[in-house]
Amino acid sequence: MIEMNLAIAEQAARAAQTKARELGTPMTVSVVDEAGRLVYAARGDGAGFFSVNTSRAKAVAAANFKRSTKELGELMAKGQSFWTAVGAAVPGELLPSIGAVPIMANGRLIGAIGCGGGTGEQDHECALAGAETVKR
Description:
alpha+beta
């Protein structure tokens, strides 16, 4: 059974940072385990000071709800009361905003990667790149 560990988290973060360089945007990357506990975080050169907090909170949301924060944002946009209120239940702990995806290994959730520093779409692309490298 594969569990999230520092080596896997670093591998995912490196792939996300590589994608950010390709996109020409600064990027902070946070990787959490399946319970949302921080395993690895790296603030990219030039990324905003708060991107460490937002990338982690995005990753926590993706891990706990087992779906991308892009999907969570779409649910919020539909106005479902749970998604509009969940942030108040755990203030500062999770952010259902675009830029994080679950990390799967052998069909099982082992964690999530959250990115912040670019546009939402850039954050999402970088998170996908990080998660995809773990699947290989």
